[in-house]
Amino acid sequence: MEESPETEVLFLSLSFLIFILLQKHPLNKRLLLHNMNTIDKKALITGASSGIGRAYAYEMAKRGYSLLIVSNEEEQLSKVCEEISSTYPVKIQSLYINLATVDAADKVFQYCQDIQWEIDVLINNAGIFLLDELVRLKERQIENILLLHILTTTKLCYLFGNLMKQRHHGFILNMSSLSAWMPYPGLNLYASSKIYLRSFSKALRQELKDYHVSVSTVCPGAIATDLYHLSHRLQNVAIHFGFMIRTEKFAHIAIKKMFRRKAMIMPGIVNHLMIPLCQLLPLNFVRFIMRKTKLLPYDVANTTSSSSPNTH
Questions:
Q1: CB 107 within 8 A of CB 46
Q2: How far, in Å, CA of 94 to CA of 54, rounded?
Q3: Residue 229 has what pLDDT?
């Protein structure tokens, strides 16, 4: 049976109406915009060979971003590259470099210039955790944390932030820490560097805001990695009670809020509750507990010896 012209017109009209409604549906619109916005977008992630950095790389690849992942762990970096390449259809470059040097940021920037990559998202994740008295650290350890947390991060923000400013587009995510509210003995150098990153990022956010460049600061508490040398059973217990969070979940939340242009990102209710508690605890009490638990053991040898301090 042959269809009448009126039926064909009605069918075409209904099809067009359904198409328009689908285009205006919020979910469909978000998906469409996401696909358009991630065409040939590139993200640079430092410290991406393991832990949170690796989770960031997976999260950005999942969102369709081409990746430049940077680390001083060559073997693990190559492994992450292979894993992501076999899972997601994205371009991925790796750069093996020690970021705890004076000219590290310049070398990373020049590498991007050489391969003609415009970085849309900069994630400064690389870091070193130290728990010890300042005077017991080796000089190189002190230099490493200052160079990595402060100098390299600042220069990367300067170099790539300047290009983002010119393009009037970009995202920067800097890793501070819950320890930025914890000027505790043993965390002296680490916490101080994280305080700098929190303050620096807060000011930089205001400087770049008028140029449509968003700067976010993420302040994690305890993350389920090998950093704390806990067994997987104890990690699972800590995760169950909300004292820890898995790297994949943390990265997903951090990236989602970064794209929502949030200033401060702190996943986990427990972390928010910890801040006022940390500020209320007397430092003398904290020192007493750390001595008793051997987290920061009392150095008896150096108090009884009359010899001069060791140099490194």
A1: no
A2: 12
A3: 53
Q: How many other C-beta atoms can be found within 10 angstroms of the C-beta atom of residue 171?
A: 20
Tens digits of per-residue pLDDT, 31-86?
A: 444 444 556 899 999 999 999 999 999 999 999 999 999 999 999 999 999 999 99
Domain that holds residue 43: 39-304
How far CA 226 is from CA of 28, 120, 129, in Å, comes to 40, 30, 12
Strand duo 66-71 + 42-46: pairing: parallel
- pLDDT tens profile 140-170: 999 999 999 999 999 999 999 999 999 999 9
Compute φ and ψ for 47, nearest 5 degrees: 65, 40
CATH code (residue 142): 3.40.50.720
Residue 5 forms part of a structural domain? no
Residue-wise burial string across 32-49, b where 16 or more C-beta atoms lie within 10 A, e elsewhere: eeeeeeeeebbbbbbbbb
pTM: 0.80
Q: Per the domain annotation, does 213 fall within a domain?
A: yes
- Residue 3 maps to a domain: no
Is 24 in contact with 18 (CB distance < 8 Å)? no
Token representation of residue 101: 């040097």
The Cα 29–Cα 36 span in angstroms is 11
Give the pLDDT score at 293: 80
- 247-294 pLDDT, tens digit per residue, is 899 999 999 999 999 999 988 776 667 777 777 878 887 787 878 887
Closest-CA residue to 125 (of 247, 242, 42, 236): 247
How many domains does the chain contain in total? Answer: 1
User: What are the two backbone dihedrals, phi and then psi, of residue 214, each rounded to the nearest 5 degrees?
Assistant: -100, 130
